[in-house]
Task: inverse folding
């Protein structure tokens, strides 16, 4: 089970991708340095993923700032809080319920590091409010897994459309199948595709 820890890991992954997929070999020289994007693990990271669902980055950051300031990145505090308490800090009623479900799940976060990725995803998606995309993103960035992909991500779908000259964005199932030959470095492929997408949007003048 390979874990990404440094830029050297990304370089090894990109060299592999350039060998197995000519389109990656074509776009990689024109991309800026690919960021590691590694994040802390634990309750706060998953709570942040829940908060980020279907809101802007700025809104999510503002809400997480209020939750952190109120001590609500501690699962015990969230368990003790009422739904109204959490809503007063910016969560919707639904996300407040999700936050409380996550706190009640009492996940063994250190043990997740030792589990196979599919087991990690199964454990996380068993918690109300955590879908496959959220679990895959957590495995990718908080656990550093090298061979995870998140085909439900709209930016990855759009990047795939552009990179591979597709007529439409590939759906989740199709993109998951497309990514299979990129193993064991699918997390690096995702980083490359996000970087390509960001660069393309900047060229179009979209921020």
Result:
């Amino acid at each position: 089970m390979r874990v990404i820890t440094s830029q050297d890991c990304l370089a090894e992954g990109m060299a592999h991708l350039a060998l197995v997929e000519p389109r990656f070999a074509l776009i990689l020289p024109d991309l800026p340095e690919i960021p590691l994007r590694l994040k802390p693990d634990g309750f706060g990271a998953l709570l942040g993923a829940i908060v980020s669902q279907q809101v802007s980055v700025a809104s999510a950051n503002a809400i997480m700032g209020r939750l952190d300031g109120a001590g609500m990145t501690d699962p015990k505090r969230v368990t003790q809080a009422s739904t109204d308490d959490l809503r007063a800090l910016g969560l919707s009623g639904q996300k407040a319920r999700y936050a409380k479900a996550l706190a009640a799940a009492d996940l063994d976060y250190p043990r997740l590091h030792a589990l196979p990725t599919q087991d990690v995803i199964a454990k996380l998606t068993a918690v109300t409010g955590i879908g496959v995309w959220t679990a895959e993103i957590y495995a990718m960035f908080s656990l550093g897994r090298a061979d995870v992909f998140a085909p439900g991500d709209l930016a990855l779908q759009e990047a795939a459309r552009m990179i591979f000259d597709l007529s439409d964005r590939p759906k989740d199932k199709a993109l998951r199948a497309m990514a299979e030959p990129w193993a064991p470095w699918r997390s690096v492929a995702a980083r490359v595709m996000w970087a390509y997408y960001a660069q393309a949007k900047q060229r179009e003048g979209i921020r």
User: Anything to note?
Assistant: The two ends are 36 Å apart (CA to CA). Residues 186-203 form the longest helix (18 residues).
